[in-house]
Write a structure and sequence with these properties.
The chain is about 70% helix and about 0% strand. With about 325 residues, it is mainly alpha-helical. Helix 7 (about 130-150) runs parallel beside helix 9 (about 170-185).
Amino acid sequence: MYTKDLQQKTAANLHIFDELKAKLKWKVSDQQVLMMAASIYVVNGKTFDYKRFIQLADYIKQESGIFSSLKSQSRFTVAAMLDVRYTDSREKFQEMRRVYKQLVEAGFRRGIFTYISAMVLLSHGKESGDFSEEILKADAIFQKMKDEHSFLTSSSDYPLAALLAQKEGIVTELIDRTETYYQRLNQQGFRKGNDLQFMSHILTLDDNEEAEADLLVERAAWVHQAFGQAGMKQKTKFYPEMGMLALLPEELVDLGVIKQIIDELSEHRSFRWQKDITTILAVNLFMSDKLADASLLETSLYTTMETVIQAQQAAMLAAIAGASVATSSSSS
């Protein structure tokens, strides 16, 4: 059911985007950056204040080195993510930079993907501020990912490795579980590739021990079919969103409602020409609404879904920011 709350979230997403577009039209050429920034506020239930947001974005640019990827348009999405999570966002930015340096020292490449990985680690904050164990584990996970899929794995997978590093269990067990999902999903007709690898990681984030791999794979196949039945493209690009939906109890998944959100967003001219990100944002809005469902609030699935939404946001942030950096470089 397309609830009043969902309608308000969809409208809020468009309203924030319009404000950002009007005020940043000379600073941001990629509208996906603004779409993502707007959705971060809505999905996380944070009130948007342009003055607070732009002051933080300007601060990030001012504090970043001349060759830093945070000098690019990606600073706006990073600012949004910091703003929705922390009241002391400037201090957290400096802490993020410290974690970033630790990641680089551990062998992570310099760039936006490592900054986002630092933010992922920071969001699972420790009072000690010591992330050395998590960084070592994230690096070990990334190296195992490369061992399994050397041609698919790149620095864009850093944020996922950082998220998996938060989970209990030894590295080989986590990667073996991911690989199990990867192979079984492929047997169900999902195409091999980076999107399927990401989908497998999302299913691995599920902390519910009762959720057998076969059950989640079966749900994922059902969601894939439901996409087509709802008149939505079954693109490989949407595999991560299908994985998110597969974690929900089947009775809570309503592709018809997601299609309604897509249609409403698409009435806006800017979103009409950005069909892929519109679909992704619609699933995010739907998922954020489900987190308020009474049947999930007292279950372990609630925590899992928060983590999964964070994983998906981190991946989107990385993809859009990475493209933004590439565009800026080619323009220069």
